[in-house]
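Subject: sequence -> structure tokens, single chain

Hey, anyone have a minute? Need the predicted structure for the following. Not urgent.
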Amino acid sequence: MLDLLAFGSSGWGDELLGGAAMTLAVAVSSFLLGLLFGSAGAAAKLSYSLFLRGAAEVYTTVVRGIPELLVIYLLFFGGGNMLQAVAGVFGYEGFIQPNAFTVGVVAVGLISGAYSTEVIRGAVQSVPHGQIEAARACGMGRWLILRRILVPQTLRFALPGLGNVWQLTLKDTSLISVTALAEIMRMAHVASGSTRQPFLFYATAAVLYLLLTTLSTVVFERAEQRAMRGVRRA
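Reply:
Had a minute. Here:
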């Protein structure tokens, strides 16, 4: 059985490692995209505009309220139609089908962004308002307050929640195997079907995910410790 996990033409080891690299690439891209969506969503929820608050509320409610797999299906099967409709307005009549990597990143990024929105919003609201008032009293402008006070403090408060969002994002990448993208679950499925050893390859996939999540936990714990330097603890 171990020969099946060997590298080279005799085993599936290199394919599984390639799948792990693809999983990591999708997870990082989706997480960064989710941070953009989350920052925009949090800003909208904290704005004075009723329209922006309503739009952000609809986004987080819908995305968090339906299964993640359904989000992927909607984008995979409906994304091409939407792009063709937009392209048709400009006179393009050809067939458009987004590739699996793009669909996976956007879909998982939307999911990640919905959860990041609430994490970032809560972190912003945790920043003591007195610090903002003191900065204004010192003559700081809006962008200087944002750069020196709001963003560093928000990041410190948001890191534990964003660590959880990252773990969720990393595991959600397994769902995009339905688009035939060669990530961990897809390669484990192909290998198990080819060798008729499903337990071996799915167990290997579990080990790879566990390694990635354990390493991620260590990285975020170190980041939290660094962010908390100089902060008085009770």
